[in-house]
């Protein structure tokens, strides 16, 4: 079978051809959604269907006959298999979808046309095989009607050819398309474990809604969901036998060859696997950070950290020296940046996060190695390292099991892999149960249902706090639509237009009142709901309100004015942070209330006091310059071209609002924003940063106040200063000088106290010396002391040695506020007589919950269990024969 009997296409050509093909069929082209899914039940976007969930459920209707997309996807449920010929963590999924718009017959016809037509893939028909669900005769006849021979169509069971969202919810039969790679590959039939018959496109005919009792009524309309792995079809179209041989992945493997000096397919299987893992993980890491995911110890941040660390480890295995992952990130951007512009826009952030994590993992590896060394020291010769310890190293330190085994084997120990695998299995099962919790649920979301029959709420609150003539278009009580509400009831009111801002983008919702003839409602909050509805969370205080009533909407003016000011301050703060710290700064979250503002941003270390002062001064300079806040409505592309800052993961329409400080061509701040703002920076009064803190390994938080909040903050601080000055009996201006004076006095007193406790005049030390035991060649002092810190024990030893003035040794334990200090020390003569300080400390430190060691003439340890001091000293006496 020839491998050159069809044409060759690049990954970019395949992607463009697929999307254009289905656009011409009438499908709407959708851009890939972020790897951070809107669906809170999903950790990461893992399929093209994710962004179309509500269309599948029938709660929203698409006007076009269908959709097509190339979706960024990330899956790590089989991370241990990544690096073989097939498995990837990050991949691109080509898809076409229908939600009642086109039929199963159309889907099959178009799929066959795309893969066989010379204008498109042009794959040889005799090398194509189809599988269908075991009782799906309709699919068999549809394929056969296009010329597919019956012996190229096979039936597979539910495990292979029936898709379900979960135990309940949308489901239906599948039909998969396979390509025969030739007899040089193992495999006997489509669907087996071999690589000869390679599945590259799955057509899912989602038509049922499985219930808890097992019944499967039809969905409101039949759906089509197809997914073609771009890397897999690229390998086929480039006459390669593996996902990693296509042009995109091969470019990353070539980079690994260059950095490591090893040659792909010329060394060992383990070396090839490391090169593939580096290629895969580096691409995944780059895309995740580009979509705003930051490393953490939970959720998607943990997935990112795990992939990044695994990549670093395999780089070490290949012998790559120093930091190297940003080089991979640049290659990913070079190859895929044209298609995914977020990679280019966020290059500095990607570089900064990767560099910081790579450096941090170096320290983590060292900590893991120290723990592993300590555990190995406890083992007898040839003993097995516990699988629980190996799992803790993996789970807590991110320490790869391969590295644990390698180090253990070098020390003469093996690892209990059965126990390790059991712990891993239990962790995966916990993760699986969490991830599978009714991911689709029931198709009864009231807001999704409303979006199908009502237009979104018109917001009229940019220029006015009060709007009359607002029609009640929906009333929602406890998640259910209502016709009327009475006094005393709580309700979510939806109007056709409103002056209330619904909580969104970090800005809290407005409060105020709704009033109609015979009805009054107190609005406690306003939320932005699915479908673009502003839900006025209100309590009916008088009368009743019904659908169709007309109300006047009045926002609490004073509260909104303070919110406006704090929102504008976040824009100024964002711009100032970029100016002072660098372009890698990205907003990672915010909260704008009437009292204060909170701003989270990406940064890799604490902001210094000098930097905080520069940021604060820069913001205040623009406030004092009294610059107008200019808002313009423009197309999204025009806005981006103007340099307007867009937020991670935020979805923007074709038309956007751009908010700038100043009306010049190069304003200090320019952002895409739908919130409410001050009209002039001078309205902010002044800006004061009240705290700077960490909210993760690569994110910082600044809290600040403006206007009335800033005045209140300063007043409170001045009052506190007055109280401190009164307590110190000095003027406020002299507080610092008085505090320094008190510190000096305290230090002097502490020195005198310490000298009294550990010096020659100390009763404790004198009592200890008087109880010295004559060991023949030296005198031994074993004593328990109170109130002396571990770092002062050496001074005690000096005092004992001066008092005895002969060959001597000590074993001292101290208890200071529950913290234990141990010290063993000896003169040269005592050491010659057999005293070993290091051996004593190593033997007894575990009894106080500590570890330690040292030289024969001096050793120390610390501990946390003061209740073990007596036992430790008794053990020392027994060891020394005293």
From TrEMBL:
It comes from Parafannyhessea umbonata. SMART domains: tRNA_SAD. Its main location: cytoplasm. GO terms for molecular function: alanine-tRNA ligase activity; aminoacyl-tRNA deacylase activity; ATP binding; tRNA binding; zinc ion binding. PROSITE patterns: AA_TRNA_LIGASE_II_ALA. It holds the Pfam family DHHA1. This is Alanine--tRNA ligase. Keywords: Aminoacyl-tRNA synthetase, ATP-binding, Cytoplasm, Ligase, Metal-binding, Nucleotide-binding, Protein biosynthesis, RNA-binding, tRNA-binding, Zinc. Zn(2+) binds at residues 567, 571, 673, 677.
């Amino acid at each position: 079978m020839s491998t050159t009997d069809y044409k060759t296409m690049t990954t970019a050509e395949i992607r463009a051809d697929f999307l254009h093909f289905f656009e011409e069929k009438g499908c709407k082209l959708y851009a890939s959604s972020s790897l951070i899914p809107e669906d809170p039940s999903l950790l990461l976007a893992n399929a093209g269907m994710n962004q179309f969930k509500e269309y599948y459920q029938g709660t929203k209707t698409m006007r076009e006959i269908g959709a097509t997309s190339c979706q960024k996807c990330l899956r790590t449920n089989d991370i241990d298999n990544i690096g073989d010929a097939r498995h990837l963590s990050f991949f691109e999924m080509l898809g076409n979808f229908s939600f009642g718009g086109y039929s199963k017959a159309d889907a099959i016809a178009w799929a066959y046309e795309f893969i066989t037509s010379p204008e498109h893939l042009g794959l040889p028909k005799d090398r194509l095989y189809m599988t269908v669900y075991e009782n799906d005769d309709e699919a068999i006849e549809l394929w056969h009607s296009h010329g597919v021979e019956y012996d190229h169509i096979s039936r597979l069971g539910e495990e292979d050819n029936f898709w379900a969202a979960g135990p309940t919810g949308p489901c239906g039969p599948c039909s998969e398309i396979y390509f025969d790679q030739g007899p040089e590959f193992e495999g006997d039939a489509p669907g087996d474990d071999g690589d000869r018959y390679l599945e590259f496109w799955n057509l899912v005919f989602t038509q049922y809604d499985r219930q808890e009792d097992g019944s499967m009524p039809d969905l409101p309309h039949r759906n089509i969901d197809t997914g073609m792995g771009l890397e897999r079809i690229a390998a086929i179209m480039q006459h390669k036998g593996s996902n990693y041989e296509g042009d995109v992945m091969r470019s990353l493997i070539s980079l690994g060859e260059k950095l490591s000096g090893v040659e792909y397919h010329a060394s060992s299987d383990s070396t090839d696997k490391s090169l593939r893992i580096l290629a895969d993980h580096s691409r995944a890491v780059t895309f995740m950070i580009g979509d705003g995911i930051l490393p953490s110890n939970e959720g998607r941040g943990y997935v990112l950290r795990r992939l990044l660390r695994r990549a670093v480890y395999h780089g070490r295995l290949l012998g790559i020296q120093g930091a190297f992952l940003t080089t991979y990130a640049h290659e990913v951007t070079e190859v895929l940046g044209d298609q995914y512009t977020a990679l280019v826009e966020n290059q500095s952030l990607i570089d900064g996060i990767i560099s910081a994590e790579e450096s941090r993992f170096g320290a983590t590896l060292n900590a893991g190695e120290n723990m592993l060394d300590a555990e190995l020291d406890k083992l007898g010769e040839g003993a097995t390292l516990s699988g629980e310890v190996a799992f803790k190293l993996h789970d807590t330190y991110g320490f790869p099991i391969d590295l644990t085994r390698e180090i253990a084997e070098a020390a003469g120990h093996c690892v209990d892999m059965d126990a390790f695998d059991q712990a891993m299995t239990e962790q995966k099962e916990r993760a699986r149960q969490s991830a599978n919790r009714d991911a689709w649920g029931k198709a009864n979301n009231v807001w999704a249902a409303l979006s199908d029959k009502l237009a979104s709420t018109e917001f009229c609150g940019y220029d006015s706090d009060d709007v009359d003539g607002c029609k009640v278009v929906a009333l929602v009580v406890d998640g259910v639509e209502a016709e009327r509400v009475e006094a005393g009831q709580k309700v979510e009111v939806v109007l056709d237009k409103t002056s209330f801002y619904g909580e969104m983008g970090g800005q809290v919702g407005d409060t105020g009142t709704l009033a109609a003839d015979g009805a009054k409602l107190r609005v406690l909050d306003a939320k932005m709901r699915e479908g673009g509805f502003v839900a006025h969370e209100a309590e009916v205080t008088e009368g009743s309100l019904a659908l169709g009533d007309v109300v006047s909407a009045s926002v609490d003016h004073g509260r909104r004015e303070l919110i406006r000011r704090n929102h504008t301050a976040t824009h100024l703060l964002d711009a100032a942070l970029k100016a002072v710290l660098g372009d890698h700064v990205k907003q990672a979250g915010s909260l704008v209330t009437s009292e204060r503002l909170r701003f989270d941003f990406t940064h890799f270390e604490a902001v210094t006091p000098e930097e905080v002062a520069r940021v604060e001064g820069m913001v205040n300079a623009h406030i004092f310059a009294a610059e107008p806040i200019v808002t313009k409505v423009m197309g999204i592309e025009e806005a981006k071209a103007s340099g307007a800052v867009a937020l991670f993961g935020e979805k923007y329409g074709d038309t956007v609002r751009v908010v700038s400080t100043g009306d010049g061509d190069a304003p200090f701040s320019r952002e895409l924003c739908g919130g409410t703002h001050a009209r002039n920076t001078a309205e902010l009064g002044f800006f004061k940063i009240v705290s700077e803190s960490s909210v993760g390994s690569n994110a910082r938080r600044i809290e600040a106040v403006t206007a009335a909040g800033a005045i209140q903050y300063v007043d409170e601080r001045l009052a506190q200063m007055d109280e401190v000055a009164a307590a110190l009996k000095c003027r406020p201006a002299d507080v610092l000088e008085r505090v320094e004076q008190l510190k000096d006095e305290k230090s002097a007193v502490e020195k005198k106290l310490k000298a009294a406790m550990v010096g020659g005049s100390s009763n404790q030390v004198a009592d200890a010396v008087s109880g010295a035991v004559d060991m023949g060649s030296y005198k031994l002092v074993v004593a328990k002391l109170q109130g002396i810190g571990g770092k002062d024990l050496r001074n005690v030893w000096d005092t004992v040695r001066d008092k005895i003035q002969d060959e001597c040794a000590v074993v001292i334990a101290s208890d200071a506020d529950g913290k234990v200090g141990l010290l063993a020390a000896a003169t040269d003569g005592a050491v010659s007589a057999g005293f070993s300080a290091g051996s004593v400390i190593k033997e007894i430190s575990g009894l106080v919950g500590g570890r330690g060691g040292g030289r024969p003439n001096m050793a120390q340890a610390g501990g946390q269990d003061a209740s073990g001091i007596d036992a430790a000293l008794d053990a020392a006496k027994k060891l020394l024969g005293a």
